[in-house]
Amino acid sequence: MNRAKKSYGKPRKATESKKLIFATRSSFAFRCLLLPSIAFLCFPLLLSAGAFSLAELDLGAGCGIMESARLEILRALAGATSVEPEFAARKIKLSDAALFDEPFLTLSCAGAPESLDYGELRALRLYLVSGGTLFVNDASGRRRSPFAEWLRRTMELVLPESGFQPVAKDHSLLKSFFLISAPGGRFNLEKEPAAMEYSGRYAVIFSRNDLVGVWPKDSIGRYVYDIPAAGQRHSGEKLTLNILIYALTGSYKQDAVHQPFIMQRLRELDAGASP
Amino acid sequence: MRFFIGESWHFMAAAGLALLIFISALKRSPGIASGLKALRLAAAGLAAFLIIKPSAVFYRPGFEKLALTILLDGSVSMQGPAEKNGAAGKYSASSSWLKKNHAETARAVRTECYIFSDRLYRTDCSSPAAPAPGAAYFESDLDRALNGLFQGGGGERAGPDRVWVITDGLSLGPPGPGGTPGRFPPALKNKIELLGVGDPRTPPGVVIKDFSGPGFAIAHIPFGLKAELASAGWAGRKLELSLKDQDGAVIEKRTFSVRADEEISVSSFTLSAPSVGPRAYRICAGAPGGACQAAKDLTVSVIREKLRVMYLAGRPSFEYACLREFLKSQSAIDLVSFVILRNPEDLPNADERELSLIPFPVNEIFLRDISHFDVFLMQDFDLRRFAPAPSYAASLADFVRKGGGLAVIGGPAAFGSGGYATMDLLSDILPVELSGKPDFDPGRIAQAVPAPHPAAGDAGRREDAAFWRGAPALQGTNIFGPLKPGAKAVFNYSTPQGDEGVLVAEKTSGKGRVIALSGGDTWRWKLGGGRNIKYTGLYGDFWSRILAYLDGTLDLKKVSLEALAHGGFIRPFRLKVLNDSYVPPGEDEGVNIDASLKFGGKVLPVEFEPAARGLYQAQVRPAGYGRHRLKVRVRSGGSFLGSDEAVFEAFQVGPDFVPSDEAGLIKAARENSWNYHRLKDAKPRELLKAMPAASSVRNEVYRFEFGSSRSVMLLLVVLFSAAWIWGRLRGLP
Fold first, then answer.
1. A116 to each of A153, A157, B201, how far by Cα in Å?
2. How would CATH label the architecture of A2-273?
């Protein structure tokens, strides 16, 4: 976890950290009461087997999601939507039989993982063509990212019939819950995420803006990474939740019955009423 | 006289060549007398002549009689009276006319007579018999009859020189536009004389001349029915026309005033059928508020253009995403789906305008538009929260009773956990008893075990225990109580702890069907296809069968009797039999069919013959005119598989007078350049005069075959013998 933290972002200033010590200690007692309460409240959710879990694809060092980011995402999902997620952490290797018990997998890496062997490539292909969805997050913040290059090479082998394309502005991914007008994220490297389509749905969704990086918080509830641009974090949070809701509803928002309402809202946003 | 040669030119050439060689050799022979040479030449020439098989034919000029074919309509309408209150039927009037005039026609032309109905039946022109029961069809096919006579519509062979068709014009199917025979091949132009039999005038009263509609209609889509009504003696009075459905309920009623003494009015009705299958309609005419004086029935096969599915989910889930994707991928399904994305207490931490959410249209779904759907899927849906008024559950129950299919899919907010047990209208139509307490166990691992039910899939896969043991287990189920009376399990499940329960159950309610699915994660079967290729397709098969059950296309009957198309009095029936595992029984299973025909207090045995595995056929001869009930009971291996019955009516042909369709016959005659005459006014002499002139012919009187003549052969022998003897006398070799 610590190692992953180092690799993700710039360290906070020392003085700033000292100022936080008191607040951190004073909140300890509060947390002692709060955490069991949260655990108690979340207990039924933990029992919701088959519910949505932010399972990670385990590709070894250089990849992973900070625990606080995972929990923040799931809390935001539970708080904003009717989804009752499962909070237990799950890491799945491509060689695990349990791969096919998780319809949604997240892969967040700052560097390029090792190349996949034949068995892993085959398993990943079977997973995606059978209905699985992979959300890939580039946490490197580099334009010429080794991870992005690794992903491109790997996916050419896994889904050669497809290819990464920018998500269309009117695609249901960008309106599955929030109406997305800006991509957001910890970085600003792309205007929209990219995706690989298989059988009419996005099987692989790829963000280079580090959407996962907008979520982690430290022990007193402050964001781990500063994001200078206004609204970038909020947009990133919204897009993250949209990706999860897309995995759980498909192209539901594309249905004709929703179009008039959604189009009206989009027109309002485009007319300058952007929040 | 004409001279013919029986052999080909090869023989002629060979004979000529042989003769030339002989002449040449004869010339080079010294010391032979000229007379002997002439004798030898004559013998050789005669032999060469006979080789080519010559014959001489002698003719005498003469005339050939023209061919006339008389077609007598054998349809049931011809059995009716020729006139109102008349005793003689149209058919007997026609045969009397034919009998009376046969001698005159036979003198002038070569005459052949046929009764035509489904095909041609040859009959004696001097005493045409009434059509045998098997030959009296409801319609007569004139097109087929003429095609049979002229072998391909007159284009390939000449056929008769003239055809007289004696008919009332009421059932000359298949009809063309306007209900009359359509256009016939131009080759038949001026070759047909239509002779209309029967009184064409409408008697006082009401007659429904035609009640027609499309052969097929699409469920929910409006279609039209047309009724043609002929009234006579009703001038100044009102007439009521009622369109009724198969249950006798009036769909539409119209009243109109009749102005003329004889009037034909056409009424069109637009209606739609709520569900698929054959639907019977009856049109009924009479005085307003009075009894039905004329009626006609029509059956329309209602088919589905697309299955209309409403899919409602209580929250986003992988089950929703996968099932919605599957339903969207089916070109034969029109899907409207809603999912509750946010509960009222959820706070998205964003301005409302940033959300792509719409208010949940509960009234539109449950009250206003539900009747537009065939199948309603409700997954993990908390009715207490989103549709609490009793009218919503009542509407859902009413939807099912009227023929809709409902699938209730489990989850933490469904069944006992969703408080369904307290909603009487909903719980009454469910196939399982529900607990009054929360019944969802999220940790319950359910290994599906198919029950012997057609909705559980094909028998081969159903009986493959290893297949199902290895199938991905479902996780999290509502725990159902026992099955209700009349309900059946489609899938059961077992847990690793050895518990068992019902996974999928079904029950009919009213005209509709209801499925309860206790697990809400069948998506595991879809993803499982990636882990093991043999489970690819399991997910699609499962939901296809569930939908087929819900929309009524999956047949659940083990014994089903089906009436096949018929044209005569004999009624063919087909019996389909499935065993307890819903597969056609094998030869070793010993199927016992007890079939009987009930008519007027009599019970007659009926024999069904095997046609294929699980299929049996019988030709049922009605025991008389009237209502018959064919009942079948099937047993196999000591167990009762089921029973079915069919009711049919054997009509007494021609009980009422129906005026002949003279207008239709005149129209057909005009369109095809034929002639029309009323039979009672028709004079055979004048009809015969209209025929083309008889053609002159050469009749062969005598044929002389040279090769077969004894005298010629004797002459040949004499010539050869004389030449030989003469030569020997001269000392020649």
1. 10, 10, 91
2. 3-Layer(aba) Sandwich (3.40)
